[in-house]
């Protein structure tokens, strides 16, 4: 009976290590990036929403919203609607164009 438990313990341990390294740790890293992105936002930053809307931040509110100035006027969004990846790519291309 003890041999059966030992036979399953190895694969179970490997599965646990796999879950930690390929699921839990990358998720923690992404949450940390999102927290830093939200903390680093400031008035005047150019951003892109997850739906693809481009704008400039006019207001940052403590309740988790922000007001963006777009070509259509001012719009209020949740900060969670801002895309980290697209915003970073936008700002990276602007910095490169200035060089």
Automatic annotation (TrEMBL):
SMART domains: YajC. GO terms for biological process: protein transport. It is a single-pass membrane protein. Pfam families: YajC (PF02699). Signal peptide: none annotated. One of its GO terms (cellular component) is plasma membrane. It is found in: Cell membrane. Keywords: Cell membrane, Membrane, Protein transport, Translocation, Transmembrane, Transmembrane helix, Transport. The chain crosses the membrane at residues 6-25. Belongs to the YajC family. PANTHER family: SEC TRANSLOCON ACCESSORY COMPLEX SUBUNIT YAJC. This is Sec translocon accessory complex subunit YajC.
């Amino acid at each position: 009976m003890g041999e059966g438990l030992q036979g399953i313990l190895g694969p179970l341990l490997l599965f646990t290590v796999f879950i930690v390294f390929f699921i839990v740790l990358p998720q923690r890293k992404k949450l940390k990036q999102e927290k830093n992105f939200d903390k680093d936002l400031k008035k005047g930053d150019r951003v892109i929403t997850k739906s693809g809307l481009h704008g400039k931040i006019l207001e940052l509110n403590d309740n988790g919203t922000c007001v963006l100035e777009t070509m259509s006027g001012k719009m209020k969004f949740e900060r969670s609607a801002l895309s980290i990846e697209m915003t970073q790519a936008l700002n990276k291309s602007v910095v490169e164009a200035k060089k």
